[in-house]
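G., the chain you wanted modeled:
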Amino acid sequence: MAKIQAIRGMNDILPEQTPIWQFVEAKVRKVLSGYGYREIRMPIVEQTDLFKRSIGEVTDIVEKEMYTFEDRNGDSLTLRPEGTAGCVRAAEEHGLLFNQTQRLWYTGPMFRHERPQKGRYRQFHQIGVECFGMSGPDIDAELLILTARLWQELGLADHTRLEINSIGTSAARRAYREALVEYLSGFRDRLDADSQRRLESNPLRILDSKNPDTQALLTDAPKLDDYLDDESLAHFRRLRELLDAAGIRYTVNPRLVRGLDYYGKTVFEWITDSLGAQGTVCAGGRYDGLVEQLGGKPTDAVGFAMGLERLILLLETLDLVPPGVNNDADVYVTALGDRAVPAALALAETLRTAMPAAKIVTHCGGGSFKSQMKKADRSGARYAVILGDNEIDTATVGLKPLRSDEPQQSLAQAELATTLIPILGA
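Predicted structure as tokens:
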């Protein structure tokens, strides 16, 4: 019988990999908590109509990439391809939006059926941040400032760069879209296949085409900023002033757009040059019309999302994972003989109480002294505690260093914790 394997593009995260995930998630949680953001948790399955109404029916996500199915009641359900729509739905459903301000964040898996490649998967994990009820560019600036602080915390400040743009109101984009389509229609035969399709469905996405021939055609195309309304221009000007005052470096990219229909005014991307084509590590912008579009009262909103797989890949590529981010034990307690088993379990509990930050592994499963010491070494522990019949009779333990040439010493069991605490800093 053939073995069952994981679905292509949906990867297991193994014990050797989880410490870096926990490290990154802890850094994000620390930064967001420090800015007063609160966590929200939403289901991974939503009604399909939520994403059709928010993302747009003529986007690549809805047309090609969503995992959609009918449940037993005949309802159309979809595994969430992104988090913003679900967050808006949850906040509106539970009365968190009207006449209120909210700073929310979430993390979890998202699902898109696209060609798997390094840094891009069919099940991937995002951290999303959403702010509601604040109309000014100051909240846009705060999001970019806190993201810059996260890069500092992770050691990525010198490996990421910020690009920003304003795409104006929906009315401004409609006028620009007409001008862009008119211009590009004269070069239809010279556009790549994706751009030809987008010319009919989502022409602004052609602006961020990675095809150099298409980019060359855009040199003389109408410019989006020529169509921006006064309010969007003033908003964007003030945002730049705030970023300058905060010392946040950025580039204005007039061709930067977002792939989802609900964005307007501010859009931004944090980009790295260290991952090849998969260079965007964080992206977002304002979506002031989305809450109303989904049935709520008009609500100003702005947010971003970052992909954890890509962020972790960047840390690994740049060798920025701290040495202590691993599953290594601090202490491995051996149990040599039947009498030692209950004593070892009790001693390990005493150590855990005295050193709550330490990783204490108790040997289970029996075996010779040699085999137990091999397992102690493989655990990565700095010290092995040796406990056998002689130690039980004398109320002592052997303390053997495993990562240095220090000699083994014999200690009273009561002295073990006080000896290890200053060494391990636990």
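Residues 137-154 form the longest helix (18 residues).

Shout if anything looks off.
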